[in-house]
Amino acid sequence: MSLYNLQKFLYEINRDPGVQDRYRQDLAGLLGEFELTEEESGALRNGDIGLLYVLGVNGQILMHFAAFLGIEWFDYLDLMRKGIDTHGPVRDGIYAMTGGGQSFTVEEEKR
Amino acid sequence: MSLVYAGVCSHAPGITGRADLVENTALRDEFYANLHKMRDEISAAGAQALLIVAAEHFANFFMNNMPAYCIGMSDNYEGPIEDPAWLKIERRKIPGNADLSRRLTSEIMNTVDIAYAEEWKFDHGISVPLNFLTPDYDIPVIPVNINCQGPPLTPLPRAWAFGEALRRACDKVPERIAIVGTGGISHWPATPDSGKINEPWDRDFLDRLMRNDKDALLDYDDTRTYAEAGQGGFEIRTFIAIAAAAGTTGTLHFYTAELPIFAVGCTAAKFDL
Lengths: 111, 273
Description:
The complex is a heterodimer of chains A (111) and B (273).
Chain A: H1 3-15, H2 17-25, H3 27-31, H4 38-45, H5 49-55, H6 59-68, H7 73-87, H8 106-109
Chain B: E1 3-9, H1 14-17, H2 25-44, E2 49-54, E3 69-72, E4 76-79, H3 84-87, E5 92-95, H4 98-108, E6 115-117, H5 124-133, E7 141-146, H6 156-171, E8 177-182, H7 199-211, H8 214-217, H9 222-229, H10 236-246, E9 250-256, E10 266-271
Parallel strand pairs in B: 1-8, 2-7, 2-8, 3-6
Antiparallel strand pairs in B: 1-10, 3-7, 4-5, 9-10
Helix pairs in contact in B: 4-6, 6-10
């Protein structure tokens, strides 16, 4: 129910270097300012891209958070697939997986 | 003066950010050459300002206050908001023209309730096209946004009416204006399906777009678009607005579905003003 708050947290991180600093230095304090479920705050605390994806975070927000965490592109795609393997289908939003987890690029297949 | 150039192109972040991962570098470079061709056309048209109609991705607008339509009204913008190392575009200030924005906005408001913003951080939806269209950033840019990120979305006939309003506004100012719509056609960006492209759907849409067939362009509904073209397909609104602004048929310079690493069918086209 608090997907809005979860995405707001990530929106703030993605666009504000000051919030990025707080994420690195005072994550607990920053998380405390948002009304989140335990599952959501845990996913943020652990940088759990797969769970965040399953919770319904818009991919346009999530991919920049992954980049902020230093996650390479193909690893980002894999983490989302693993999230579905672990937690089941995307629960909310419009960024559901429709391709059965397959890769759509030769570059990813050959890496 | 009037509208002196109208075109559309892709804006996916992979176009610059994943350039080094591309296997088919010849096709990649052909796409880049066609984006540069658009740059040359804009320059040859003597454009004094570039209106770029994009579908931004939560860089400035969030669900706490989401405008269906917004125009930038500043003398300076900044971008890209993404990590420059990730997007492979250096962050910088981009010149705007607040006075021109104000005049355009005043005219648009006669028919469309557009929001305006005196602060705007460009994301890849604008920064990637600018990287090719105005690499020297020597022409004022006026950002325009149509919310395409998620429902409720502005209906397609409203996007068409918005494009017509943009045209009326351009025709009422003395400056020579270029307008470019940026977005994807079918695509499933930032999901595990990144790289999935519905090429027949894209080609059918581009055929409608280049014929500037209003009825055919407005004959999509979002449920069907989402099923057949993904959430990225909602961005057809930007292309449709440009077709309405142009009011003419177009020329497709380039389209390929063979660069899926960019996560979109790569497109470059102009309307024959």
